[in-house]
Amino acid sequence: MRVAAVPAMVLWAALATPTTAAPMAESLRPTPRPHPVREAVTEVTMVMTAPRLRPLPRPGTVTVPEVARAIQTPYLIVPSALAPVASLRPANRPSARPAQVEKVVFRTQPAPEATIGRTGALCGDPAILGKTIPPIAAKLKGCGLTDGVSVISVAGVALSQPAAVDCPTAKALKAWVETGAKPAIGRKGGGLVALQVAASYSCRGRNNQSGAKISEHGKGRAVDISALLLADGTSVTVLKSWGSKSYGKPLASARKAACGPFNTVLGPGSDRFHADHFHLDTARGRGAYCR
Questions:
Q1: How many Å apart are CA 76 and CA 55, to the nearest integer?
Q2: Cα-based angle 171, 199, 162 (whole degrees, multiple of 5)
Q3: Are residues 65 and 193 in the same domain?
Q4: Is 232 part of a structural domain of the chain?
């Protein structure tokens, strides 16, 4: 059987006529794999474009200015261990010991002009407090005090003013307070707390009389006591309390006890010069004189 030929114009029209067929699908070619060389080059390029890192100094040469500059540099991390380290260089070896060591000299007693202070012990007795004093030159023949001390307290009893005397007199005053004055007062008024000092060193004649023999005061061997001061504020004066009902007997007992520690004890009834105080001295070269 023979098929009739189709004209060319009819065939072209058929092909150009729109149809309802589904659109052509996307390309089915496989997606290209990432190229490792290209990505590596890209990463290298990114690193090289970042700010250039400065190398850290070696630990052996780290100094404070270098650490400070490194901290201020952008994008540079400084190990925290380096921050507090000023220098890691080994320290210098200590210098050699001196060839000779000077000897230290200690004085068993301070020099006369030295001051021990208000808590310093004097005359080798911790119960005698005060300071040493410079030598006192003589204004009159027979006066002067070479090894003097300024006493402010004896046996826990204060002195109203520092007493300039020598050590034997200071020790006698301390012994009298302990064995005589304190026991005589007892618990009256709360007990004895201070002595009213009327005089100590003074370059003068006896009883302040012109032309008289030099007093023991002029040698630093005497002290005058005009009153006993008690804890409650009572002032037991020699002038007013001597022979009184309240403190007559304690004063008489204290005066009697002074004869022993002191070589000379004078007071009311001795003479007109000692009616208002006890004169206590450590005169040498004779026996006791107590009246």
A1: 9
A2: 60
A3: no
A4: yes
Contact 165, 223 (CB under 8 A): yes
152 and 282 part of one domain = yes
Q: How many domains does the chain have?
A: 2
Residues 135 and 67 grouped into a single domain: no
Tens-digit pLDDT profile for residues 184-218: 999 999 999 999 999 999 999 887 777 779 999 99
Closest CA to 277 of 214, 200, 197, 209: 197
Report field, pTM of the whole predicted structure over 0.70: no
Q: Strand, helix or coil at 191?
A: coil
Alpha-carbon 256 to chain mean position: 47
- Using one digit for the tens of pLDDT, what is the confidence trace for 25-63? 455 666 666 555 444 444 433 444 444 556 655 554 444
Q: How many CA atoms lie within 13 A of 54 on its CB side?
A: 15
pLDDT tens-digit series, residues 239-271: 999 999 999 999 999 999 999 999 999 999 998
Host domain of residue 68:
57-85
In a domain, 35, yes or no: no
* Assigned domain for 62 exists: yes
